[in-house]
Amino acid sequence: MGDVVVRIDHVTKRFAGHVAVHDLSLQVPSGGIFGLLGPNGAGKTTTIRMMMNIITPDEGRVTLFGGSGTGRDLSARVGYLPEERGLYKKMKVLDHLIFLGEAKGLSRVSARRSGKAWIERLGLGDWSPRKVEDLSKGMQQKVQFIGALIHEPDLLILDEPFSGLDPVNSQVMKDVVVEIARSRRTILFSTHIMEHAEKMCDRVVIIARGEKVVDGSLAEVKQQAGARHVALAFTRNAANAGRVLADRSLVARVDDRGASAEVELAPGSDGEALLRALVSADVGISRFEIVEPSLESIFIAKVGAEAARPAAREEVHA
Amino acid sequence: MRKLQAIIRREFVERVRTRAFVISTVLFPTLWGGMIYFQATVMSRQTRTNNVVIVDGGGGPLGQRVEAAMREAQLGKGAEAHPKYIVARIPADGRLQEVKDSLVRLVGLRGDSVGHLDGILVLSDTSLTTGAIQYLGSNVASPAEMESLEDVLQPVLLTARLVRENVDPKIVERVSGRVKLDKQKVTEGRETGESGTTSFLVAYIMGFILYIALLMYGIQVMGSVLEEKTSRIIEVLASSLTPFELMLGKVIGVGSVGLFQLAIWVGSAFLITTNLGSVLGMMHASPEAAADIPVPSIGPGLAVVFLLFFGLGFFLYASLYAAVGAMCNSQQDTQQANTPVTMGIVVGFMTMFPLLNEPNGTLGRILSLVPFTAPFATPIRYSISPLPLGEVLLSVAATTTGMLAVVWLASRIYRVGILAYGKKPSLRELARWVRTA
To answer: How far apart are CA A14 and CA A20, in angstroms?
Structure first.
């Protein structure tokens, strides 16, 4: 612990016509789970591709494990699940995993052993002699997930690992991720789904439009946002509640979910004042709690409601 | 190195396992063998006895001489020998047209009472002086049978003319022996026992194999690059191997499939030709027929030159195909984009035909120095007549230089192309890809 696994120093990457990442600096400490968060198009995948040395930054430096080697030289220590999933459709599952292991520098024998063990572990046992094209999309994603960690990397980089998975399979993969983090290895994953990040991450960085807006451990981030958040749930007259919450002298920001809401109190206001206002507006209240802000409300506050909208919509599918 | 091996092995194993590989390995020589067999039977010497009627309208001794010569002509040797013709001569002095017309109706008919008439040979009174003899037959399309008939008639006409000029028939007999040119190819100072025909066959087969292999396996490299790009697996690969290693692994992997297939073909051809007698026996043909089948032999020098240029040509063309695959996003894209590369191979193959006639002319020398045509030109020229070592080395050097330049260029396009999605690049964009560091 204490070592920095990934260091990004003032990195800028431009593509024809737009800046994907602008003067980004961040450090991923060794061990634990690091969340790289941001709305779609924020530059998460570009940042990850630069870590993997698939593309090179226009300015700045990316360093892995404190050395001078690039992601490719160190690929034996790094596992990578790209956002765009893809496998050779005609290959058999086990053969494919052996190939991916070998491409990371494993010997054929250990790639086979490790591939078999993971196939069993993730419940793909019956499928190992089948061709990849016979598998469902979710199973293919599991195969690729195994491919990313088959060589037991010190750093596992997962780009949107849970998108498109059902809750059961998603849980299986989360368990694996947590287990790897417990063995003092490092996981970096990107997501635009704050719920996942909130449950799993030790540290998060939120980027928007190619720039960093939040950086720190989950606890720090929440503390910085302040404990001036109130979680509410309504039983009746939710419409009246909406009017009260629109009062900017009481409430600075609202994450209104209809029957419930999370609000940030306005400066100079306090919880009692808000409660009084709600009661006098005849709102039925089933929950009134001063809380730490949720990652999602921090995300929305920092990134802006506009940028968050597509992310929130996709959450419904996930 | 282990990673590169993994790429090569995957390309090789996954390809050799496919049904397409098995089918092409079996089908190609079968089709080709069939084609050669067909050509051989059409072109081969006469094997069957022809029934011919001579309509003798000349009245002189020519008719009798022709009849005698045709009766004497034999097919085959020793115990196998049988007459070439069954001949009948009908004197038709004055009513030539009439007899001819009545016989023409019978040509080609099959019937127990008449027998099978292959053709009629018409001698007129001017045949002796002009040499004009008419043959009306059902077998005129067979070059072999016609040539053989001419061979019988030629000396008869000569003898008859000399006798008419009062030359002693004995002298005539002595001087009219034909030239028997025995063509034997000499390679590297040794007699190869190879005739002109088989030497031509070797050049032809080699040119054809180069053409098929470069085209077929080059396009496979292109398809494989495209598959990795469209399935996006390239991102995982690109994160652990350099683009150059990826391209190299692919080209070597697919190339070894080509060599493996070639080895199967050459190996089985070798087994068949060395055991030709028993193979023919299995096919119920006489073992002596083996002597008539041209068996090409490939000296070690030629084998080295062929393999060397196959390798150079394959690296050159396959890396170009890899670059084409990398800059495209769909099968349709590649169909158009690969045309320049395919044209190079086609042109290279086409150079074979002028080279077969004149292997060591200026054209041949130039083609051996152009990297795009040398993979065809040099082995073909070498197979017809071995080139001096200096010239071979010069050709190897030129082709290697060109190949390295092309591989460098292709790998720069490949490197950018594999991660570029969207519109197919224009030539200007391609140039920018090559320039970017």
So the answer is: 6
Answer with the residue of higher pLDDT: B294 or B132.
B132
B17 close contact with A: CB closer than 8 A:
no
Closest to B307 in 3D by CA, of B258, B247, B358: B258
Q: Specify which residues B123 forms β-bridges with.
A: B56, B133
* Number of Cβ pairs < 8 A linking chain A and chain B: 71
Do B79 and B148 contact (CB within 8 A), yes or no?
no
CB B380 within 8 Å of CB B359: yes
CA dihedral for A54, A59, A65, A70, sign (positive or negative): positive
Q: Which residue in chain A has the smallest CA separation from B246?
A: A103
Q: What is the ipTM of this complex?
A: 0.75
The pTM of the full predicted model, rounded to 2 decimals, is 0.72
Residue A307 has pLDDT above 60, yes or no: no
Report the range of poorest mean pLDDT among A27-41, A96-110, B128-142, B291-305: B291-305
Q: Count of residues for chain A?
A: 318
Q: What are A130-176's pLDDT values in tens digits?
A: 999 999 888 898 999 999 999 999 999 999 888 878 888 888 889 99
Judged by CB atoms closer than 8 Å, whether chains meet at A75 and B232 is answered as: no
Say how many C-beta atoms besides its own lie within 10 A of residue B122's C-beta.
Answer: 24
Identify whether the C-beta of residue B368 lies closer than 8 Å to the C-beta of residue B352.
Answer: no
| CA-CA-CA-CA torsion sign (A172, A176, A177, A181) | positive
Inspect the interface and report whether the beta carbons of A103 and B419 lie closer than 8 Å.
no
Range B219-225 average pLDDT: 92
| Phi, psi dihedrals of residue B75, rounded to the nearest 5° | -105, 140
CB of B64 within 8 A of CB of B132? no
Between CA A166 and CA A139 the distance in angstroms is: 11
Q: Cα separation of A156 and A221, whole Å?
A: 23
Give me the residue from A52, A55, A89 closest to B231, CB to CB.
A89
Residue reference for tokens 């599991």? A142
Strand partners, A104: none
Give CA angle at A137 (A131, A143), nearest 5°. Answer: 60
Distance CA B238, CA B240 (A): 5
Q: How many helices (H) and strands (E) does chain B have?
A: 19, 8
Q: Is B239 on the interface with A (CB under 8 A)?
A: yes
